[in-house]
Design goal:
Oligomer: heterodimer
CATH superfamily of chain B: Sortase
Strand order of the largest sheet of chain B: 3-4-5-6-11-12-10-9
Structural class of chain B: mainly beta
Helix content of chain A: 10-25%
Order of helices and strands of chain B: HEEEEEEEEEEHEE
Structural class of chain A: mainly beta
Number of strands of chain B: 12
Distance between the termini of chain A: 104 Å
Number of helices of chain B: 2
Number of domains of chain A: 2
Distance between the termini of chain B: 69 Å
Largest sheet of chain A: 4 strands, mixed
Radius of gyration of chain A: 31 Å
Shape of chain A: elongated
Radius of gyration of chain B: 25 Å
Number of helices of chain A: 2
Shape of chain B: elongated
């Protein structure tokens, strides 16, 4: 659990030059970057595809287990270059097509062969039911398929590059991550706040599997139990209003007047 | 008294006595107007066909991250990199900040967020010029009904901004401005007057199925003894141009 929070605390904010199309802000996509490749600090350059790589790295000396973001990016194609700190040669050079109005985490992680790769994951920001929390586990480690369970309940299995997500009751959630033969790699209890969204990225280093967390907040939905009462003064009343009654009274007097007048005569 | 004056008095008297209530009555809007599409008159289950739904909010793991990188590791030349395409469902519409209903004189009324009060009923803004949007339900444009409410009036502030809600008719335009500056357009399809105590909770607080917009305020006769209205007027709207008449509701028939 300590490690869970350490990753989050290490989050650094990145400033990415807005060279892509100038879209309205509401169409921007929030992007997080996670470093899940063990053993190497790197510089990360993010810039408009087709532009020259800027001199300054977007994320300099980005360390394993670091999380950066969110950065708000207009939709478009971005070049992503990853180098060793201060060096020019790219370890990895990719183009990322970022969609509009989404929420994305880009993870730098090892492939099954230990090569550097980047994989984008979409963060599901839709509302949960009040009293629930969303939990998501992403397999981004150079490790075999793992099996997730809570207590005696199996949740599912994920292989490298895959993700598992579920909405669960808020509160303490015991989670076990194991290999197919039952070897437990992680056995922990997550504290899930109401309407929280906990995303765990698997990280494997020195023979030990851990996770790099991102914690987000979601909206929640619930229906009211009681009905509301929107009004208090009676100005909009559909009952016969006083002025109608007054006019009717005047009318009645008018009708009565001639008769009264005749009587007096 | 001359006959002529007597005749005039009689005519005026009859006109006022009988004409006033008739004229007043005829000027009142009917308690209900229009028809709620059948597809909106239920509480749909999750697997309702979402084909017509603009904001396709999925609720789980499906959309997430099986976007395998389409990279070519052997591509040393770097010239022909195929991009990694991130496929995401459309994001959530932004929260509403103002609402206009031109036909009943609502012109850019401020929308504020409301939640639940101590009785777990929807909060209503104290300021009768504001409209409360229920933030524990859908945003306008998301699946289900976005819900807004406001006091019809107040002893200290007079008429509320939704004072004439009871006069809105099917076909009326509603414009919602969102936090990001975008505007969504809605069309009133149904107005109903319900008796307090029998509020259609399931119909209004519908969090699945086709997007709708529901606005209500107090209505009907006012009881000075209790200091409250006897009814609530509820207006249902759908996205402008949306046709929900053919929405498949078989999956939803079991509830209601």
């Amino acid at each position: 659990m300590k490690k869970l929070l350490a990753g989050l605390a290490a989050a650094a904010l990145a400033v990415i030059p807005m060279t892509a199309a100038s879209a309205d802000e509401h169409e921007n996509t929030d992007v997080y970057v996670v470093h899940a490749f063990p053993g190497a600090d790197v510089d990360v350059y993010v810039y408009g595809d087709g532009d020259d790589r800027p001199d300054e790295a977007t994320l300099a000396n980005f360390s394993p287990e670091d999380v950066a973001g969110p950065v708000s990016l207009p939709a478009g194609s971005y070049a992503v270059d990853i180098t060793l700190p201060g060096e020019d040669d790219a370890l990895l050079s990719e183009v990322l097509d970022v969609p509009a109005s989404a929420n994305v985490t880009v993870v730098a992680h090892p492939t099954g062969d230990g090569e550097l790769a980047v994989t984008p994951f979409v963060n599901d920001m839709s509302a949960v039911e009040c009293g629930e929390a969303r939990i998501e586990v992403r397999h981004t480690a150079q490790a075999p398929e793992v099996f997730l369970s809570t207590g005696d309940t199996e949740l599912g299995s994920i292989s490298l590059g895959e993700t598992f997500a579920a909405d669960v009751a808020a509160g303490d959630l015991p989670v076990t991550v194991a290999l197919e033969d039952g070897t437990e790699l992680i056995d922990t209890t997550l504290e899930l706040g109401d309407s929280s969204y906990t995303i765990l990225h698997a990280f494997f280093e020195d023979g030990e599997l851990s996770v790099i967390p991102i914690g987000l907040e979601l909206d929640c939905t619930e229906a009211p139990d009681e009905e509301h009462s929107p009004g208090e003064a009676g100005l909009a009343s559909t009952a016969l209003p006083v002025w109608v009654i007054a006019l009717m009274a005047i009318g009645a007097l008018s009708l009565a007047a001639p008769a009264v007048a005749r009587k007096r005569n | 008294m001359p006959t002529r004056i007597r005749t005039i008095l009689l005519a005026i008297g009859a006109l006022l006595l009988f004409g006033t209530p008739v004229a007043w009555y005829l000027a009142q809007p009917s308690p209900t107007a229009g028809e709620l599409p059948e597809a909106l008159d239920v509480r749909p289950v999750d697997d309702l066909d979402d084909e017509d739904v603009r904001e396709d909010e999925t609720d789980g793991s499906d959309v997430d991250g099986d976007d395998e990188p389409q990279q070519d590791p052997a591509d040393e030349a770097v010239e022909e990199r195929s991009p990694i395409v991130i496929e995401a469902a459309p994001g959530r519409p932004a929260k509403p900040v103002s609402v206009s209903v031109p036909s009943i004189g609502v012109d850019g009324a401020e929308v504020v967020e409301v939640g639940l009060d101590a009785n777990r009923a929807v909060e209503i803004p104290d300021d009768v010029q504001q409209v409360g949007w229920y933030n524990r339900g859908p945003r306008p444009g998301e699946d289900g009904n976005a819900f807004m409410t406001s006091h019809v009036d107040s002893r200290s502030q007079g008429r509320g901004v939704l004072f004439d809600l009871r006069r809105s008719e099917p076909g009326d335009l509603i414009e919602v401005t969102h936090e990001d500056g975008s505007v969504t357009e809605w069309e009133v399809v149904f107005r109903e007057r319900i008796v307090k105590g029998s509020y259609p909770m399931d119909r209004v607080f519908r969090f699945d199925g086709p997007p709708g917009l529901v606005i209500d305020t107090c209505g009907g006769p006012f009881d000075p003894n209790t200091g409250s209205y006897e009814n609530i007027d509820i207006v249902y709207a759908v996205p402008l141009g949306a046709d929900y008449s053919n929405v498949d509701i078989e999956a939803a028939d079991q509830s209601g």
